[in-house]
Amino acid sequence: MKYVKWTLITLFWLLVATFLHYTLPQHDIARVTDTYEKVVDPGENSLFWAQADVGNDATVSRRDVFFIQTRQANGDVMVYRNEDTGWGWPPYFKFDTSNLQAEASDAKSTAEAPRWYAIKHYGWRNEFISIFPNAISLREVEGPDVRIIPWLNIIILVALFAFVWAIYVRWVRFWRGRVDPALERAEDKLHEGSDRVKGMFR
Amino acid sequence: MLPFLRFFLIGAIVLAVIYGVLWLVLRERRRDILEDDWETQGKGSPRDTWVNRRLAVFNQRRSRLLPIVVFGLPVCLVLWIIYMTNFR
């Protein structure tokens, strides 16, 4: 039974960690190679796509989506989509998709004369289900080895940990103060009852 | 318009719930502190009158500060995120 309990707890926290890894912003340092737009009709993977730009018809699923192609210093390629999150989830309130695309177009550079950009994004790249991380912003940096400290992530995770800890402490206190004594009283009553029954047969 | 209204409605409901919970929790905390104070300072008058009179002062103070914090802070946060994401 102990294994079941710990498996469930582990699975729960794994789910929380996965959700946070998808939703919290990350930075990649890469060289923008190209930008394009493509018609996309999200189907099974629609959970990992946003919706039409704010102001457009949000009920139509087929739409043009901007993409930004990049190459990182280690030679890996990464393709980002560039979509409005608008008033929806995650709460980045991104409305400037077209502006970002214009910036990305201007940021293109070649391998001979690279210009490195820190691309803030959220989401995952998965080739098997064709999902792309959503680029939030671009910022030019000196080189591919610039160190970027994720302050926002640190603040959010510390706050979340403090909140979970506060609830856990109060839960344990409540359990020890109210539930354990009640369970002990119930157990005592059970023993009393069973002794009485056994006494009948002596 | 509709996505904004949806966001606004959900935000308003969540913040209203947080406001309600915080109001009650803070009021009970203040009541406990005042009852302890009565033991040391106010033994002259009946406990409930002494406590309730002072609690009313704190209620008034809380009714000014709590809405600003609970409703104002998230609005400022959203505006700041919008500025940082779109205009910087």
How would you sum up the global shape of chain B?
Answer: elongated
Radius of gyration of chain A: 26 Å
Unreliable segments of chain B (pLDDT under 50, ≥5 consecutive)?
none
Order of helices and strands of chain A: HEEEHEEH
Describe the structure.
The complex is a heterodimer of chains A (202) and B (88). In chain A, 41% of the residues lie in helices and 23% in strands. Chain A is of the alpha+beta class and 202 residues long. A 5-stranded antiparallel sheet of chain A has the order 3-2-1-4-5. Chain B is 90% helix and 0% strand. Chain B contains 2 helices and no strands. In chain B, helix 1 (2-40) packs antiparallel against helix 2 (47-86). Chain B starts with a helix and ends with a helix. The mean pLDDT of chain B is 94.
Give the tags.
heterodimer, A: 202 residues, alpha+beta, OB fold (Dihydrolipoamide Acetyltransferase, E2P), five-stranded antiparallel beta sheet, 23% strand, elongated, B: 88 residues, mainly alpha, 2 helices, 90% helix, 0% strand
